[in-house]
Specification:
- With 149 residues, the chain is an alpha+beta fold.
- It has a single domain, classed as 3-Layer(aba) Sandwich (Cytidine Deaminase, domain 2), CATH 3.40.140.
- The chain is 35% helix and 19% strand.
- It has 6 helices and 5 strands, in the order αββαβαββααα.
- A 5-stranded mixed sheet has the order 2-1-3-4-5.
- Strand 4 and strand 5 form a beta hairpin.
- The structure holds tetrahydrodeoxyuridine.
- The site of tetrahydrodeoxyuridine has 15 residues, from helix 2.
């Protein structure tokens, strides 16, 4: 597990809470901010972006992963999530799977409204993610390649 000092962790918590102020959540009124530290030391943020067609809404964590991957990031160290509750919030199942695509051991910080946080490695939140390795091992792969245009 990568070593992060308290100042780095606290900075991620602060940035998630600051990002949260820009959440677009007119339907749920549940404002979420995320801040993500990449392996090359950069920080990316995201907020939930809802839509009148509810199913199109995006979680803050996936928006942050999108911003990071757009900048070329492929390895994540930590992600902080702030939802404004006293007890904190953990990423939904879909976001856990998306984080695992890049870093199954990324550290997840659940931020509480009092500024404190709880920390857990993603592997404890999603023990057996689906991975691209399954494609490589698939016995259907060759027939797919033969039939694809
Ligand atoms: N949401 C997030 O952005 N992250 C989470 O970890 C939990 C849920 C958003 C999705 C939706 O816009 C709102 O919170 C209510 O579910």
């Amino acid at each position: 597990m990568p070593r992060l000092d308290d100042a780095q962790l606290q900075s991620l918590v602060t940035k998630a809470s600051e990002a949260r102020l820009n959440a677009y959540a007119p339907y749920s009124q549940f404002h979420v901010g995320a801040s993500l530290l990449s392996a090359d030391g950069r920080i990316f943020t995201g907020v939930n972006v809802e839509n009148a067609s509810y199913g199109l809404s995006m979680c803050a964590e996936r928006v942050a992963v999108g911003a990071a991957s757009t900048a070329g990031v492929r390895s994540l160290v930590a992600i902080a999530v702030a939802g404004g509750q006293p007890g904190g919030v953990w990423p939904c199942g879909a976001c856990r799977q998306v984080l695992a695509e890049f870093s199954p051991n990324v550290l997840v910080l659940s931020c509480r409204s009092d500024g404190t946080h709880e920390i857990m490695p993603l592997r404890d939140l999603l023990a057996s993610p689906f991975s691209g390795q399954s494609f490589a091992e698939s016995e259907d792969r060759q027939s797919f390649e033969l039939t694809a245009p």
